[in-house]
Design a protein that fits this description.
The complex is a heterodimer. By secondary structure, chain A is mainly α. Chain A has five helices and two strands. In chain A, a hairpin with a 5-residue loop joins strand 1 and strand 2. The chains are: A mainly alpha, B mainly alpha. Chains A and B meet through helix 1 and helix 3 of A and helix 1, helix 2, helix 3 and helix 9 of B.
Chain lengths: 177, 196
């Protein structure tokens, strides 16, 4: 059945929401084979059409095969994309170390991607904050602060500061307010 | 990101019956695994208006090139008989049984200009409007209940979001910042200061 293999990839993802199922290398290979076969058949049909050996209704067959190729491609790309999204969320939820239970479910390219992503994130985080400090860990506080007020450390002397609700603060260098 | 959306891919894999004109090659059916065996002399002389059943994604692709390609026959759950059932009482209908992608697939069908398109569109909206208040009230008032299994996938997601929001809100009301804000705003200004 046309496009059936590729649909099985999607169904596998649908059956296991949120977790990363083992990479189905076999099914991916079969989808690629299907694409190659359909493409080859299309090239042959096109040659025959141009030579006038077959009638015009073959044009719809060409379109159908092409639609099947596009469909299989879409399913495969969606499969890879959703796995990548789940892996990305894993990094933010659990940190940059892959336990072997997860690693065994990923293909090599995904493991490589994960390391690259962690490296990018680490580089980005170390560039934040003041130069010379070790940067900000963005994954620690994933929710906005619940309190209305925040503690600040003053860097310059300012003497007295009055806020809009009437509270007065004394701002001196290196004091915590 | 509709291209990568799993729900869209699954919804468009459903099969649709339609009447195709003579440009529809029999071989497509062979590709689909539905090939009929007949001798090659009959191959060209296809009857016009024979019914074929093809997956929706294939129909969409073929009709994009040639919109006269086929006339769609609406599936049973979108026909006028069923539409009347939906109009009578949308809440009791088991969406899961008639197709878990009822709304999504209905929208997709409507985009291909089937017959009775306007009625189909109206029916989809009316059904949803009829059901949404029931889904939301179930979500917000039954804390420990299971999600009803008569919901379409779209309604399921709505239900889950509703339940989560309701839990967050009641948590906030009881434990969270609201209690503290109440205390602070009571003592923020003395009356004497305000009269300045």
């Amino acid at each position: 059945m046309l496009g059936e293999q590729a649909l099985n990839l999607i169904k596998e993802l649908e059956r296991n929401p949120d977790i990363i199922p083992p990479y189905n290398d076999d099914l991916m290979k079969r989808c690629i084979e299907e694409i190659k076969t359909l493409y080859q058949q299309n090239i042959n049909s096109l040659a025959e059409l141009n030579a006038g050996r077959v009638g015009a209704e073959h044009a719809s067959l060409l379109q159908a095969r092409h639609a099947a190729i596009e469909r299989t491609k879409r399913c495969m790309l969606a499969y890879i994309y959703h796995r990548q999204q789940r892996l990305k969320r894993y990094r933010w939820d659990y940190g940059g170390v892959l336990p072997s239970t997860i690693k065994v479910c990923l293909c090599e390219a995904e493991v490589r991607w994960f390391h690259e992503y962690c490296k990018n994130l680490a580089d980005f985080q170390s560039g934040l904050g003041e130069s010379g400090s070790c940067g900000v860990d963005l994954t620690v506080n994933m929710e906005p602060p619940k309190s209305l007020f925040v503690q600040v450390m003053c860097v310059k002397d300012y003497d007295e500061f009055e806020t809009s609700d009437g509270t007065r603060y004394l701002l001196k260098k290196n004091s915590l307010v | 990101m509709a291209y990568f959306d799993l729900d869209e891919i699954l919804a468009t894999s459903q099969k649709v019956t339609c009447k195709a004109d003579e440009n529809f090659s029999e071989e497509i059916l062979t590709l689909l695994g539905q090939g009929r065996t007949h001798d090659s002399s009959e191959h060209r002389r296809r009857q016009k208006e024979t019914k074929v059943e093809i997956p929706f994604w294939l129909l969409e692709a073929l009709m994009a090139k040639n919109s006269q390609f086929a006339t769609i026959e609406l599936p049973r759950s979108y026909k006028s008989a069923f539409r009347q059932v939906l109009e009578a009482d949308p809440v009791t209908v088991d969406m899961n049984r008639i197709g878990p992608y009822f709304y999504l697939f209905g929208c997709k069908l409507a985009s291909l200009s089937p017959p009775e398109r306007a009625q189909l569109a109206t029916s989809l909206v009316q059904t949803f409007m009829g059901r949404v208040s029931w889904v939301m009230s179930r979500a917000q008032h039954s804390k420990n209940d299971q999600r009803p299994n008569t919901l379409d996938k779209f309604e399921c997601r709505l239900y889950d979001v509703s339940v989560a929001s309701e839990a967050d809100f009641s948590n906030w009301m009881e434990n969270g910042r609201s209690a503290e804000v109440g205390r602070r705003s009571g003592s923020k200004r003395k009356f004497s200061q305000m009269t300045h």
